[in-house]
Amino acid sequence: MLRLGRHEFGDDEALMMAIVNRTPDSFFDKGATWAEDAAFERVRLVASQGAEIVDIGGIKAAPGAEIDAAEEKARVVDFVARVREEFPELVISVDTWRAEVGDAVCAAGADLINDAWGGADPELVDVAAAHGAAIVCTHTGGVTPRTRPYRIEYDDVVRDAIDSTLGYAQRALDAGVAKDSIVIDPAHDFGKNTFHSLEITRRLGEMVETGWPVLVSLSNKDFVGETLDQPVGERLLGTLAATSVCALAGARIYRVHQVPETRQTVDMVWTIAGRRRPKRAIRGLQ
Amino acid sequence: MTRVALVPGCLALLPEYASLDDPVEELRAACLAAVAWLGEEVRVVAGAQGTRVASALLAAVGSAPVSGAEAAYLIVGNGSARRSEKAPGHLDPRAAEFDEMLGRSLATPDADALGGLDRALAAELWADVDPIAVSADLLRGVDTVAIDYDADPYGVRYWVARWAPRA
Which of A165, A239, B31, B151 is the 20 to 30 Å CA partner of B97? Predict the structure, then answer.
């Protein structure tokens, strides 16, 4: 079982985590949901598309204008409360590395803290534990939040990702986060060049074999763009190809911009893998 | 004399071919009710695939095939699979008449007509009637309790029928 705050899921379920940016400058949507009402419409849309999780973020991952904790909270806390109120069936995740922000959003109704920066704030696990929230433990190679990878190399990037995320998971356990509320994420492109992200994708099964539920965040990322020489708006096919590989390996949560396309891709692969039944099969069986 | 039921050898009834949404929901419900009505001791008259279907239906209601002399009979057979252009065997214009005759003979029931079915024609029409023809004598001295299902949702004619000894 996977427990994400107020919500529980079976071990055979693949979950869609829809990205909802409360930022003026994120790379894919370029601020399309910066206004609160636009962000709320985005939540409404992805909920209607069947996403189980919304991942609300107030700071873009790439370097840019400094956003302090007060500003980050202003962007996400009340918004979380509004989503909680109107969409009680949705799992609310907040993309933050700050314990102070994590505390405030959990108080407002967040179920999951998606720490994309690999535990940069050591008190974040205590916040998750105190609120009974789940946490995503990512691998970043130890980089500072909101920095780009520069000449980072690994002896074995997959080994490093496993050791790092399992170390983080242990810290979460030690802090009191429930064992079934911890997710690991190799964090494609975070502290990784394209070759690293491709190897992580190719060997994702090794992360799945650890037994921890694995989240993958592949959507429209630069490793897809560089692999296919495609700009940000033209990366869906490459994203879905990478999604298929991760789904076959058994990734459980997919952090995405395009929910229906990813859902169909994962359902198809999940069914090929024998983890899901066809929706309705009669051909040749009459 | 004992109870007798007929179900079609539709492979979609098998658990290994289950979908998230059951494409044969009504047929399955009728089959399970008929098989449950037979009681716990049931002899099966079917070909190889039909035997698998029968075993799955019996298992679903907590029964198992037996060979006891007092047991009821479950026959697995169906009409033509060539009833339309979308049917598995495409359209054969002879299918409709064949199935009408077969349906009437089951409903009556007319044991002589069932025993004398044109099995060569049935084979050409992709109709699985051998188990029905060889067990026609079971349908002497019985009354039709109900034709619980009579339709061809996917181009194959199915019946679920129940017969009981004449009172």
Answer: B31
